[in-house]
Amino acid sequence: MVKTCRLPLAVQKIFAASHCGVAFLGGSLTTGVGASNTAETSWRALFLKYLYRKYHPVYHNQVSEIMGAVGASESFVTAFTLERNVLPHNPDLALVEFCVNDRGVPDKTLVLKGMEGIVRKLLQAKGRCDVMILGTGCRPGTDPTTPDGSVDHSLHRKIADYYDLPFVDIQRYIYQALRHRGQKWDDVSIEFEKKDNVHLNDYGNWLAFEAIRDCFEENVAAFLQGNKKDWREAIPPPLISDELQFTELVDPSRSSEVVVEGNWQRKSPELVPWYFDNLLVGTPGSRMVFRFQGTAVAVFGLMYNNGLKVNAVLDGKKVPGPYLLHFIEFGKGFVLAHGLPYGQHTLELTVAEPSRRHNKLENPTAQIAYLGVGGIRGG
Q1: If you write DSSP's letter for every residue of 153-207 in order, what string do you get?
Q2: Top-level CATH class of 8-224?
Q3: Domain 247-374's class?
Q4: How many CB atoms lie within 10 A of CB 177?
Q5: Any residues with CB less than 8 A from the CB of 32 and at least 6 apart, and which?
Q6: Which of 10, 97, 171, 348 could form a disulfide with 134 if both were Cys (CB 3.0 to 4.6 A apart)?
Q7: What is the secondary structure of 88-152 as a DSSP string?
Q8: What angle do CA 62, 67, 69 make, to 5 degrees?
Q9: pTM for the whole structure
Q10: In this structure, are residues 80 and 298 in contact, taking their beta carbons and an 8 Å threshold?
Q11: pLDDT tens digits, 249-287
Q12: Residue 1, class by beta-carbon neighbours within 10 Å (0-12 exposed, 13-18 middle, 19+ buried)?
């Protein structure tokens, strides 16, 4: 049981008949893939409705959604997008869900940097923001990265524990509910081409919501007893690194820091997803040269069914570049390097020639939205 309320600002906003902005950060599990109606039956929508229906009749509070979730995003990708998608809306409470999308990343330090960057941005945002970290999961026995085949939460718990944040073990809650009711993962799962191991149907979303609701209610109970964390205290120094706390998104279609060469065309605005401002569409041989000062660099683009590889050279050395081909269209971020010496660096991106195996349609392209810089204050 929770002894100290670690969400005091959000609870206080609700009790004060004020507005509580709730931000959601994560991947497709947060956007609601699998729910029959993401605006009604996703755990995200259920939590917002719960806050309003339970507390508005008593305290006359208002709640609103701040969407910061994009499918297929990892924590270290989303660390670059908070200033665009979340922080301008002054969130009071943020639910952060990345355990599933981070689970297969071999660079565990990058995962820790991503989670720490997100948390530090939120805790130091204007008006401060309470944070809950969510431990989403998978079909039992299907995660090859752990001995028991469940999603490993240890990295995200490490950040939650260090910053004294609530951690909601949704995976464990669903496992226990299914076991108690004599059910299996198929009862909470969707089927997309094959049995899905992570995305949840309406029933699964309800169970995820219950786990989040119970944690919030425990924090409310502690608040009412006068046991609440004092958020006036300064946040601790970084556990791993503040490199991804200090980031910047650069729009290559507008920035003087980016030199474009070859055939780049700006995509029609009505075809650009909400989480991008612009998309530059490049054909094979088109180049970008980006000079930046920092310690990390990322590329954000649009995956689609005729996307091309983008070759990357950083400070004269080849590094793995993004491959922007997928049978589903969605935005994707790629961190090309982190932990660089602080200073001036040069990134060269060149759109590769099409692959006969993968690019079977005419006129394949690479579509790039942003370049990201981390450690802009020295990291």
Answers
A1: -HHHHHHHHHTT--EE-HHHHHHHHHHHTT--GGGTEEEESEEEEEEE-HHHHHH
A2: alpha beta
A3: mainly beta
A4: 18
A5: 38, 41, 42, 43, 44, 45, 205
A6: 97
A7: GG--SEEEEE-HHHHTT-S-HHHHHHHHHHHHHHHHTSTT--EEEEE----STT--TTSTTSS--
A8: 145
A9: 0.96
A10: yes
A11: 999 999 999 999 999 999 999 999 999 999 999 999 999
A12: exposed
Task: Spell 190-208 as b/e; 16+ CB within 10 A means b.
Answer: beeeeebbbbbbbbbbbbb
User: Two tokens at 43?
Assistant: 């755990």
In this structure, how many other beta carbons lie within 10 angstroms of the beta carbon of residue 254?
A: 11
Of the candidates 281, 275, 278, 276, the one whose C-alpha atom is nearest the C-alpha of residue 304 is 281
Is the pLDDT reported for residue 379 higher than 60? no
pLDDT digits (tens, 9 = 90+) for 154-195: 999 999 999 999 999 999 999 999 999 999 999 999 976 678
* Domain chopping of the chain, boundaries: 8-224, 247-374
13: three-class secondary structure by DSSP? helix
CB 77 within 8 A of CB 25: no
- Percent of the chain clearing pLDDT 90 (strictly above): 92
Task: Give the integer Cα–Cα distance in Å for 70 and 9.
Answer: 26
Residues 321-363: pLDDT tens digits? Answer: 999 999 999 999 999 999 999 999 999 999 999 988 888 889 9
pLDDT of residue 214: 98
Residues contacting 202, CB < 8 A, separation 6+ = 35, 36, 41
Residues in the chain: 379
Q: Do domains 8-224 and 247-374 have the same CATH topology?
A: no
Write out the two tokens for 218.
């425990």
